[in-house]
Every structure is written in C-alpha cells, then in structure tokens.
C-alpha cells in the first residue's frame, strides 16, 4: 500500500472511530445498554430498535459496517463485522465499569477497527457431497479437492449432523476448499467454488441419459433440499442455513470417473483457477456454457433440460446479430456454422451432420420456448447435450491454441468467416 493510500485509510479509520465513540456515548446516556444481560437478547439489528433513544444510532452503525467492509472486502462479511463491532466493542464499552472516555476511548475504537481492517485468514472448509463415490487418490479441480471420506469420517458426520444426512443422501466424498475470510465469507467462497466444480463434473463425467431423479450429485442440504448444509471448517462442525423443501430417496451412487484426456482436464482446471478479472470474454462464455450444461444434468422435465442445453450452446458460441449479414443468416444458421467449424468434424459428412443437428435441435428449442407444449424424448436430450459438450471441449482447445485471436465474440465471427472462405490444405 502506498503512503497516500495509508494516509487515506488512516483518515477513514479516524472518522469511523469517532462514529463508534458517538455510539458508545449514546448507549451510556440512558436505557438498558448498561446491563450486559440486555445485550444477550438482542442482535446487531434489534439493538437500535428495542429502545427508542437508540434508533438514531442505526444509520451511523450501518455506515461504519459498510466502510469497514470496503477496507477489507476479501476477508470480512457483513454479519461478522456487525457482530464484532456490536459485542466486542460497543457492548464492552457500554457496560465497562471504568468508563474510558475521551482520547482513551478513541484509541480503543481505532485499535478495534484496525484489527478488523488488517484481519486475514485462510481455512479449510469441507463440504459433504451426496451420491458421489471416489476411488483412489483425491481429485483436484480448480480450487476444490474431492476427497474420499473414511468410514470413521462418515460416522462422525452422521453423528454430528444426523438430521441433515439421514435418509436423504449417501455421503462418501467431501469437497475441500482452502477459503479466505471469516466464517461466513469462507463458507460462501467455498460453496461457490464447489458448485463450479460440480458443474464441470456433471457436464463432463456423467451421462445425460439414461437418467433418474435419484442420480443427482450435489451439496448435501442444497440437493436434495433439506434446509441446511453441514460443513466442517478447520475440523470444527457448523451448519449453514438456507431455504428449501423436499428430498429424494434411494440415491444412486455415481462414481467419479472422467473420460477427459489429461490435457483437457488440465486446461479446464487452469480456466477455473483464472481470476475473474483476467479472463477474456470467450473464457467467461465457456464457463457460462459449462454451468448451463451442468444445470441440464440435474433432474427436471425434459423440456426444461433441453432448454438449458440450448442456453449452454448460446452461452458458448452465440451472440445477437449485429450486422446485416448475421440478421439475414439468422441465429440458428450462425450457431450451426460456428459449431461445425469449432468442432472441426472428422470429415465433411461429420461437419454437415453437426450443422444439420444444431439446426434441428435449435429449432426444437424455439418450439419449446414459443409453443411450450412440445414433448422432448430423452434420447434427444442426450444427443443434444453430447453435441453441445463436444462444442465446449473443442472451444476449450481452440482458446488455448488461438489465444487472443479468439478472445471475444467478434473475433469468433471473424475466425468463422475465415474458415468459411479458406482454401483446402
């Protein structure tokens, strides 16, 4: 951090410390805040609504929380900042028998704020995965490591979280993420990384058909919906809550077994690990396509799954027509041509089939979206998904080979035109 940034941060902390002092003085003036038992019955929100004289401090407190988060956004969550400011500083100073004031109170406020702003920690978060079996060594994908749970480990999870595990899932694997920040920040980061990795597994490692509702893999508590997810942070058990209802019985265990070549696995691992700001447009589109194919692998009615596959295709290689030629050709023709060139079929007949199949399936998508009543055979769901997966894997290879030549959709269209008019080798 530069000298100027240090100076600016110091000025912000001084201002926030002054606001904390005002809040302490407000609590000391009157009301129940001098009794430590009162604080035990309130939250950082209700502290300012339980007693009329404290309501004026609500906006001031929210401003302090927001500014602290801006100074350390990667490590702190709103909940944790509000909790620490309320119970580790305001409560302590309101009930403090020695009543520090003036410069001493200001120094305490500043020290507490500095501790929050300088807070940095990383911790292992283990998330239990349902209906997935891993044989052999741990598997790394992006920032997630899938680890086979031992018999003792499974028994411990079941003992600690019987309500979340019993009867709804079969747990043999945990997904481990070394996550930054306080508890809420770390759990949120871990869940995001795990869900991204599961999208890849669903897209690349499991069939789209035959398919049953009991074959889904996912985070316990999220899939199936049970209301909460048990996680383990640095070997300490916690439960995270969210909304959801219903569950699936008699799970079918899926083995984690990839048919990807080692090079493809390496490329997709590197793509996931890339910081969001350093990815180009086409890399972001590829990840969006993977997400929608992963969604299409989850149980749903055939029409919905088919629509999600078409979303994946659009995310991978689609864009709204901008010039007159694209408007004349139409989106379906554009997608068919791009897919055929990107996959670079085995021969001319294969390329023509790719073009024809994309036109057929995308036409079915239009019937679903605009008509809504058409039934879709599961065999078509499977064939369309496999074809779009071929597009995704081929695009992954092309992005690695061509680099900046294929960094956005305009360059993709330029590349496709060159393919159209290039001479045979």
What attributes does this structure have?
elongated; 16 helices; single chain; alpha+beta; 425 residues; 7-stranded antiparallel beta sheet; 57% helix; 3 domains
What is this structure's SSE topology?
Layout: H1 3-29, H2 36-40, H3 58-71, H4 78-95, H5 102-117, E1 122-130, E2 132-133, E3 139-141, E4 144-148, H6 151-160, H7 162-165, E5 171-180, H8 183-205, E6 218-219, E7 228-233, E8 236-241, E9 254-255, H9 262-273, H10 281-296, H11 302-317, H12 324-329, H13 331-343, H14 348-370, H15 378-402, H16 409-421
Parallel strand pairs: 2-9
Antiparallel strand pairs: 1-5, 1-6, 1-7, 3-4, 4-5, 7-8
Helix pairs in contact: 1-3, 1-4, 1-5, 3-4, 4-5, 8-10, 10-11, 10-15, 11-14, 11-15, 13-14, 13-15, 13-16
SSE topology string? HHHHHEEEEHHEHEEEEHHHHHHHH
Query: Rough shape?
Result: elongated
* Secondary structure tally: strands: 9
> What's the main sheet like?
7 strands, antiparallel
Tell me the span between the first and last alpha carbons.
Answer: 55 Å
| Helical percentage | 55-70%
Query: Pairing-aware structural class of the strands and helices?
Result: alpha+beta
In total, how many domains does the architecture comprise? 3
Number of helices: 16
Rg over C-alpha atoms, rounded to the nearest angstrom: 27 Å
Beta-strand content bin: 5-15%
Low-confidence segments, given as residue ranges, are 242-253
Please, what is the average pLDDT? 83
């Amino acid at each position: 951090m530069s000298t100027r940034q240090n100076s600016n941060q110091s000025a912000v902390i001084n201002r926030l410390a002054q606001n904390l002092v005002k809040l302490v003085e407000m609590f000391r003036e009157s009301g129940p805040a001098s009794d430590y038992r009162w604080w035990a019955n309130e939250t950082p929100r209700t502290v300012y609504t339980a007693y009329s004289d404290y309501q004026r401090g609500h906006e001031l407190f929210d401003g302090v929380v927001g500014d602290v988060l801006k100074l350390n956004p990667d490590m702190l969550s709103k909940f944790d900042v509000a909790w620490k400011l309320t119970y580790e500083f305001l409560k302590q100073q309101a009930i403090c028998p020695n009543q520090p004031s003036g410069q001493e109170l200001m120094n305490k406020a500043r020290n507490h704020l500095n501790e929050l702003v300088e807070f940095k920690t990383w911790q292992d978060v283990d998330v239990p995965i349902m209906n997935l079996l891993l044989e052999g060594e741990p598997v790394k994908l992006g920032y997630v490591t899938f680890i086979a749970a031992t018999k003792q480990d499974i028994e411990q999870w079941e003992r600690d979280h019987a309500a979340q595990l019993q009867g709804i899932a079969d747990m043999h694997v945990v997904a481990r993420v070394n996550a930054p920040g306080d508890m809420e920040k770390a759990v949120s980061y871990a869940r995001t990384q795990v869900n991204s990795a599961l999208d890849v597994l669903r897209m690349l490692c499991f069939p789209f058909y035959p398919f049953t509702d009991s074959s889904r893999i996912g985070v316990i508590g999220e899939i199936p919906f049970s209301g909460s997810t048990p996680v383990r942070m640095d070997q300490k058990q916690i439960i995270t809550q969210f909304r959801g209802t219903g569950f699936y019985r008699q799970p079918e265990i899926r083995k984690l077994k990839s048919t990807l070549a080692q090079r493809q696995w390496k490329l997709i691992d590197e793509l996931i690990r890339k910081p969001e700001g350093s990815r180009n447009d086409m890399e972001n589109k590829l990840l969006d396509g993977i997400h929608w194919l992963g969604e299409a692998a989850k149980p749903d009615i055939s029409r919905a799954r088919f629509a999600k596959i078409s979303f994946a295709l659009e995310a991978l290689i689609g864009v709204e027509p901008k010039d007159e030629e694209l408007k004349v050709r139409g989106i379906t023709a554009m997608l068919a041509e791009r897919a055929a060139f990107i996959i670079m079929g085995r021969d001319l007949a294969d390329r023509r089939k790719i073009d024809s199949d994309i036109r057929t399936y995308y036409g079915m998508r239009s019937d679903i979206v605009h008509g809504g009543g058409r039934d879709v055979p599961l065999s078509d769901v499977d064939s369309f998904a496999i074809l779009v997966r071929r597009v995704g894997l081929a695009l992954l290879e092309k992005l690695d080979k061509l680099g900046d030549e294929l960094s956005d959709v305009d360059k993709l269209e330029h590349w496709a035109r060159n393919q159209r008019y290039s001479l045979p080798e």
